[in-house]
Known about the structure:
- By secondary structure, the protein is α/β, with parallel strands linked by helices.
- The chain has helices at about 30-35, 45-55, 65-70, 75-85, 85-95, 100-105, 115, 120-125, 130-145, 165-175, 195, 210-215, 235-240, 270-280, 300-310, 330-340, 440-455, and strands at about 5-10, 160, 180-185, 220-225, 245-250, 255, 270, 290-295, 315-320, 345, 350-355, 360-370, 375-385, 390, 395, 405, 410, 425.
- It has 17 helices and 18 strands.
- Helix 16 links the parallel strand 9 (about 315-320) and strand 10.
- Helix 2 crosses helix 9 (about 130-145) and helix 10 (about 165-175) packs parallel to helix 17.
- Bound molecules: iron/sulfur cluster.
- The site of iron/sulfur cluster (SF4) has 15 residues, from helix 3, helix 4 and helix 8.
Amino acid sequence: MVTANTKPNREASPLSNSQLTPGVVPGRLRADAYRDNFSDKEPPLDAHEAAVAADRCYFCYDAPCTTACPTAIDIPMFIREIATGKPEAAARTIFDQNILGGMCARVCPTEQLCEEVCVREVAEGQPVEIGRLQRFATDALMATGRHPYERAAPTAKRVAVVGAGPAGLACAHRLAMKGHDVVLFDAREKPGGLNEYGIATYKAVDGFAQKEVDWLTAIGGITIETGKALGRELSLAGLRAEHDAVFLGIGLAGVNALRTEGEDKAHVHDAVDFIADLRQALDLSKIPVGRDVVVIGGGMTAVDAAVQSKLLGAESVTIVYRRDRDHMSASEAEQHHAASKGVRIITGAAPVRIIGNGAVREVEFAYTREEGGKLLLSGETFRLRADQVFKAIGQALDGAPEGLELSGRKIAVTGPGRTSMPGVWAGGDCAAGGDDLTVTAVAEGRDAAEDIHASLIG
Length: 458
Ligand code: SF4
């Protein structure tokens, strides 16, 4: 069975070793096809479309959509503001609860959250387009270039926020708004975390992740230091000594290993590296892709890697997941999106061997079955031709921060992100509890900031 030990995410980039297999090549498509394939997945609403979409809202009392939103955005309120021609006021309503409302409008699985419980969905099978309306409003305000919040009077308190992903950014912004000085550290070259490196290119086009960071930090009081990682350039003890509080939003930088025979063959990569390479590529036609691509996993990362392989020109792309579709963490909408792009999904099978002479040529899978709550391999196997394989079987902490208690494989927290160490909070994917969603990370970062503020000010 697939096992899940972690190893640091330092595997060679998929850009690096295309020489071993002629099938893995860049430039499979006409030059203009890349632009078309990787353009906005869902184009923004124009003003008329937004007015029509907003008009469908019943402005429910005790709105179930707001209850379903992890950041508790007052959804009927912002939709009413759009309906009455005030998109910037609508954006302010959104940002009051979720300062990364622009990115969440692009990546939230709304069909599992607010739109799933929308009374229009329940009654008619067609929800109000909450996500697209949120994007309409937040884009309108961000396009003005104005930052809508002002800082409170300086408190002379200094807080270290480690990790400039969704949780860290939300925490840093809320702390800065309260008048604290924030130093926002990130291990990578650019801030943004998952938003910058970990989602499909067509979900956040035109450098939106960077634009959002620039807009958010325009509040002032936030200093960004990149290229600094906890356990490398930074220590928890050092951060605590130099700051009044510390927030950890370090995500999950370790990648689970398959521990399957042949995993070290050429063109077997971590899907997160492939996705990051695509996001940072200046020219997508330079990214090598196989003719027959196999992606192992069942989450969003698997879908993002598979769909983008197809969009780069792979002829056959297959996702193989060890359990049934209901257990896939990729949403139904994402699964349909993958299918619509020609990605095949095989469930109930796990890899047992990666075959090839130097480079991967085939992957052997065994069908799985559940017995007493355990997933077991049946003796029945099949093989898929593959000249490129992406592993997307989950991520984990890349080394636990020193001195912190863990819960399972994540940092243990109570209440609004308090860790076992006084003065240290944590939130987002690295912290136990909550879904691994951007919007949940934003809520946790924001709530931890409120708790940090209360503890600093008393
Ligand atoms: Fe509007 Fe649907 Fe929310 Fe009701 S549940 S307030 S109709 S978006």
